[in-house]
Design brief:
By secondary structure, the protein is an alpha/beta fold. The chain has three domains: about 1-90, 5' to 3' exonuclease, C-terminal subdomain (DNA polymerase, domain 1, Orthogonal Bundle); about 125-315, Rossmann fold, CATH 3.40.50; about 330-384, Orthogonal Bundle (Arc Repressor Mutant, subunit A), CATH 1.10.10.10. The chain is built from 18 helices and twelve strands. Helix 8 links the parallel strand 3 (about 130-135) and strand 4. Helix 11 (about 230-240) packs across helix 12. The longest helix has 19 residues, at about 75-90.
């Protein structure tokens, strides 16, 4: 797909012009949007006088002259070449750019304080993606955290809710994979260019997301996953979502930044309580204790807060336990009711249900086939 002459739908700025503007020193996301809104077309801004630029809200005389210097120097030609290279790389991976002025630009993201003037995209964004919830957390989750992530992702996907996360190791990866496993949509916001897959072991996951969702970045093609990029991209994760669910994070974890950006954007924040002795739980427990996040134990805790916003897709679904439990035998029911999201050893299961180890194994296998139980190393089992 060629983007060289693509115009935004409410202005006569080409995508290439926006890329050039983004290269002018001192011109960030907010100022690019302001210039486009004021001048309406690229020729006007590139031919504007210092006085005309200075009259734009938020632009000083110094900045106006900096823009004139850029436009009237060899830097402008370099900016055009940069735009050409970017579009060529984007075409090579069959990606696209969506601008703030395009109809495809997500409405939820447009409403945050500092939405990017354009986003690089591989995959697609569809109308129902506006019903999205972010799931984020630690890069080194416990089995409990993994289980909880799988459970809530599955339940949300069954409602038609899109899952947003950051493609990072740990909770993010579990959320994306679970969404895809249950044929749901998922959006991944990354801290690098679309052509730089990080972490590299998520290459196949990256490709699968593109088929049933999208990879999104505000960073130019070729941009490396520098540490400073990730805190900034977190505002897009929360900005694309009606609410953010935090599952296991320390106080200094990146998920805490996402929680804070969600709060700044006046979006709902939810947190899973955890073991008070675990560093992985300190962030969630603190958010709950300070009243900055709602404690979540079941899906209803999320749906109750978002019922009005989710009404179009929830109108035919009653809140409550949405998980449909298949018919179970007496022994299967006994074992299933005994289990929780905390792993239990088979010997303890046998002791609690007063069944032999052999009978417990047979029935646990049946529960696994029905998608209700997961086996972990060491003959540990938990409910999913």
């Amino acid at each position: 797909m060629e983007y060289r002459n693509k115009k935004s739908e409410e202005s006569t700025f080409s995508v290439a012009d926006l890329l050039v503007l983004s290269q002018i020193p001192g011109i960030g996301a907010n100022r690019v949007r302001t210039l486009v809104s004021h001048f309406k077309n690229s020729s006007s801004v590139f031919n504007a006088s210092a006085k005309e630029i200075e009259s734009v809200e938020g632009f000083s005389k110094k900045l106006a002259y900096a823009i004139l210097h850029y436009v009237n120097s060899s830097l402008f030609d370099e900016g055009k070449k940069f735009a050409e290279r970017q579009l060529s790389k984007l075409n090579h991976i069959e990606g696209q750019i969506i601008t703030y002025w395009d109809k495809q630009y997500p409405e939820t993201l447009k409403k945050i304080y500092d939405p990017p003037p354009f986003i690089f995209l591989k995959g697609d964004i569809i109308e129902t993606d506006k019903y999205a919830i972010a799931i984020v957390g630690t890069r080194s989750p416990s089995e409990y955290g993994i289980s909880i992530t799988e459970r809530f992702t599955q339940e949300l996907i069954k409602l038609g809710i899109t899952i947003v996360s950051g493609l990072a190791r740990g909770i993010d990866t579990v959320a994306h994979r679970t969404a895809l496993r249950f044929n749901g949509r998922t959006l991944a916001v990354i801290g690098s260019g679309l052509d730089i897959i990080y972490p590299p072991e998520n290459k196949k996951l990256y490709e699968r997301i593109c088929e049933n969702g999208s990879i999104i970045s505000e960073y130019e093609m070729g941009a490396k996953p520098d540490a400073g990029n990730f805190p900034k991209r977190n505002r897009i994760i929360s900005g694309l979502s009606l609410g953010t669910l935090i599952i296991e994070t320390d106080l200094g974890g990146g998920a805490m930044i996402t929680a804070n950006t969600a709060l700044d954007q006046n979006r709902e924040v939810f947190a899973i309580p955890g073991n008070i002795n675990s560093k992985r739980s300190r962030g969630c427990n603190t958010l709950i204790k300070e009243g900055r996040a709602k404690l979540v134990e079941k899906l209803d805790d999320i749906l109750d807060e978002l019922a009005i916003k989710l009404r179009p897709i929830l109108k035919d679904i009653e809140t409550g336990d949405i998980k449909s439990i298949p018919q179970l035998s007496l022994f299967e029911r006994s074992i299933y009711d005994m289990l929780s999201e905390i792993p239990e050893h088979i010997d303890h299961i046998a002791e609690s249900t007063k069944l032999s180890t052999a009978d417990v194994l047979v029935n646990l296998l049946g529960l696994e086939f029905k998608g209700l139980v997961k086996q972990l190393p060491g003959k540990m089992f938990l409910k999913i």
